[in-house]
Amino acid sequence: MSDISLRAVPPADQSRPVAGAHARLLVFTWVATLLVSSLPAILWQELHIQPAMPMLPVRIVLLVAFMGVTFLWKAARPLRAYFFLFLCLYLADAFFTWIGTTAVWQGWFKGAESSFNLSMMSGQLLRLATAVVMVAVLWLVFKRREDFFLTRGEINATAEPVRWIGMARPTGWKRFGLILSLCIALGVLAFVFIFSHPALDSLGQVIPFLPIVFLAAAMNAFSEEMAFRASLLAPLLNVVGKSQALLMTAALFGLWHFYGVPYGVLGVVMAGFLGWLLGKSMLETRGLFWAWFIHFWQDVVIFIFIAIGSVTSGG
């Protein structure tokens, strides 16, 4: 790892770039991030462009090219870890997605197409495996787990004001986190209930599925927060700054949920907003707890409605 300088440079060791160079670096980071995000694939599919393009090889080529730029452009050198971790994330995700299609895996989870418990655990185990790989890579790059948020963090750290959501003064994350958890879970509940129109008597059918719902929600919240947020937020933070790092990872999170629940443009906006809040919790508490906790409860709501067949990913 040290041969290609992947380890992030601490803020104290970095010279502050001049405004023009920093602006160019910021534009480059945004363009590169959007090119390797889900946005090109979404546009390709939604515009019905034929033939279908395999996006993984394109993303790999782009990420390798962007890593090459960091060897040629000195100002972009701190982004090398970001592109490397992004590449590892896509490769790990693709590998475990392939594992899920193998005869051995299908044999272990025979009947997953018709069983909520089996299908949910099959998907969550594969996603957890991706997260474990990313934790290992992050440990190699950063050396200390605190540097990539693999710690509980300071539970009652100060949450900075966010006036556009009505939070005018700083408050403790213990209070703010509980309020967010309740509001987001209830918001998702209202959205799914209004748009899926479940029969009230069907809600009683979820009781046998509750153990898997809670287990899967806990696994999914950890996997997504660790693999799809912490692994990209950590290398971006000291390169583009807190606000831009939050916006980039929120945009990525939103685009990754275009075919999720909720789906479409509304899903992107909702997931992006959620991603911004969860990233904010990571940065301000320097840990994973509140991001995991808030994410867990909204997943519980979504998985309950999936269990009774009221909603499916992508609509």
Please, could you describe this protein's structure?
With 315 residues, this protein is mainly alpha-helical. The protein is 66% helix and 1% strand. It has eleven helices and two strands, in the order ααααααββααααα. It has helices at residues 19-35, 39-46, 55-72, 80-99, 103-108, 116-142, 173-196, 210-240, 242-256, 264-285, 289-307, and strands at 158-159, 171-172. It has a two-stranded antiparallel sheet with strand order 1-2. Helix 3 (55-72) packs antiparallel against helix 4 (80-99). The longest helix has 31 residues, at 210-240. The chain is globular, with a radius of gyration of 20 Å.
Which outline best applies?
globular
Q: Helix-strand pattern, N to C?
A: HHHHHHEEHHHHH
Strand order of the largest sheet: 1-2
The biggest sheet, with number of strands, parallel, antiparallel or mixed sense and barrel status, is:
2 strands, antiparallel
Helix content: 55-70%
Strand content: under 5%
How many strands? 2
- Low-pLDDT runs of 5+ residues are 9-17
Radius of gyration using CA atoms only:
20 Å
- Distance from N terminus to C terminus (CA atoms, Å) equals 42 Å
Please give the count of helices.
Answer: 11
Whole-number mean pLDDT: 89
What structural category characterises the helix and strand content?
mainly alpha
Observed structural traits:
315 residues, mainly alpha, two-stranded antiparallel ribbon
Short recap of the structure:
The protein is mainly alpha-helical and 315 residues long.
